[in-house]
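ok so i was messing around last nite and threw this chain in just to see what happens. nothing serious, just curious
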Amino acid sequence: MSLALDYLAAAGHIVEKIARTQMDEIERAADLCANSIAQDGLVHMFGTGHSRIFLEEMYPRHGSFPGFHPMVELSLTFHNQVVGSNGQRQAMYLEHLEGFAAVILRNFVIQEPDCFLLFSNSGVNEVVVEMGMEAKKMGRPVIAVVSADHSAKSGARHSSGKKLVDVADIVIDNCTPAGDALIRIPGFDDPVGPGSTIGAAAVTNALKVAIAERLVKLGKPPHVLTSSYFVGSEESQRRFDASYDDYRRRIKRVYGCD
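result:
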């Protein structure tokens, strides 16, 4: 039997464990995010490396809606080059640079009722830990999505001795085992097939659904990017434009344009 099936089974186990163990935290996080969005605030999102994936998964995507501000720093996330200029070595070096998160945040206007949603599989690299610490200095609540197993088995790297789980108000476990890669191949030393993408994407979309549910109940239904499959091409385009317009309206304040 192909080991690819073993990977799919392991990925399914991650999603099942999230459903079984993380719903209370997902619901708490949804309350916080919906409260921010309903009051025209923003959910500021940040992650280094491949954690950028989940910022883009939240919005813009079909079935998604405004209210989220992705802080995608290319120097920390641009992995296409691998070597040479803008290479992987540089990105991995910078994510350990203390003081960088504070510099990034100087570019934005953060205020009540905003909150932060931070993604990091390990939860120990300096920049993402510092991002959480800076958010807390601003009095803003922090949600962290991490691998609890990997974080617990990793030493703190920030000079404060803190990990992201020590800073966050709400911690959601992506339920990926430490080390991330899920499958061992007989006769080969290195495990393959990372699981954190599956876990964090599942958390992202479960959270998105829970936030939308709350916004509807609050009488503030979101402007969703809706596929033409559901509503036809003309109506789909109208809804896309409405969603982008709402995003533009919300985001201009964060760049000091109000």
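not much to say yet. The chain has one domain: 3-255.
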